[in-house]
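dude i think i finally got it to work??
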Amino acid sequence: MQIAAIDIGSNSIHMIVCRVGADLSFDVIDREKDMIRLGADGLDGGRIADASLTAALATLSRFCRIARSHQVDEILAVATSAVREAANGAEFVGAVERELGLHVRVISGTEEARLIHRAAVYAVDVGRRPAVVIDIGGGSTEITVGTVDRIQAERSFHLGVIRLTQYFVTADPIAQRDERRMVRHIGREAGAYLRQIARRRIDRVIGTSGTILALGALAAGARAGDDLRNRRVAVKDVARLRTRLTAMTLDERRAIAGLDPRRADVAPAGIVLLDTLLNRIGARELTLCDFALREGLILDYLERNRTHVQTIARDPDIRRRSVLELAERCRYVAPHAQQVARLARAVFDGTRDRHKLGAREREWLEYGALLHDVGSHIGYERHHKHSAYLIRHGGLRGFTPEEVEIIALIARYHRRTTPRRSHEEFARLSRTDRRTVRLLSAMVRLAEGLDRSHAQVITRLRLRVAHGTLTIRAAASGDAELEQWAADRHATPLAELLALPIRIVIAAPSRRSPGKDLTRHARHARRAARVSRPSVRR
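look at this
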């Protein structure tokens, strides 16, 4: 099933097209955006200009053609504050349905806040603790408080960047008196609600929308093309950006690398609003989120059709769910991947006293092991490098960009060469993360050897350090000669990192004659070839 979601906002019109998987998770397979600025005329009961209406109809027509080219089953479309407030908003909605056959639902600010919150806590790993979600649009700003399961407070305020620019920006650069007037207005509109949030001392504040993503990227010093998902931005850096932007002229802002010139005129209002909100609620940092109203529409549709709830119930952990969704999209061999992950965890747990890594690194190890072979979906040759590419670009949710890179490199180094400073991606890591990648990839490499036949014959590992040697004793349910051979070959990197010789002893269930062992060895080799061959795509 494929669904498109269209958000007709005061600043821009956005669309995503999603493919819903067998487990009713979804992937974005296409997206479009057009900055129309319906809010330039339609706010506070004004009339949207004919030229803007014509441009919006042309954009929606194009979006509908794109969506239908994907053979979508549903097109969900909503309109927010500009259409909601405009004197001719109903006329516009009628024209869209009449000319394009597209039903547009005009939603309230509260409904908009609810949908945005649902999307944000789906995309960002907030656990069971409450989070604040802020979405700054052209005509309104939505602020919610809640967990994954329940919204505890939701409000929409007439504090969009177009609206504030029209009201308060009378000089270029913005005059200090106008900036102070804007801050007082924000306090009058939302001050009481923000004080309630501040009293709760909530740690996680999530920011969505084009305005926040653009300003957050600038504040964080992100480069063009950097992944902003789950990027954390210090509030003090937002304050510095406010000082910088409010002192610039429009032409100077248009020349800023990384800022869309079309946002330059509303950037002062946006940064003053964002900085004021973050300070009023006592935030220390802001987590950027690329999921917003559109993704909320998709999630709401799946829930109302009583399907998405089943996915969440099956695996409520967004990070694990995201990893498994990527693995399934790449047609991974689940028994082998799960066995390698299980064995790698056992090696990690048995050497804790030596490597001193914690629960976070253990999680990265597991996910790198589960995804180590997904590159075979592209081709077996160089599949370790293909795996790293797919992990980097697979849309993993709930992870920071740094975590995604570490997981990608764990998979990258499970075979062939070990990590080297001459490798650009590895060299960019911090010293601590380089050590982590070396250790975890070495563990996956060893675990891969312990399932060389892809037959999952190793049932248990016991690790012990004695007399200066790490002994790994493995129990096997069948002939494990291939596993012994491969594990002995691939233990060296881990042994060097732990500064311990490694001795691997695999106990088979019974003794056999050499002839029988050789026969079973050959049978396992044929089985391994059969297992790996279907995943090679020519």
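The radius of gyration is 27 Å.
im so relieved honestly
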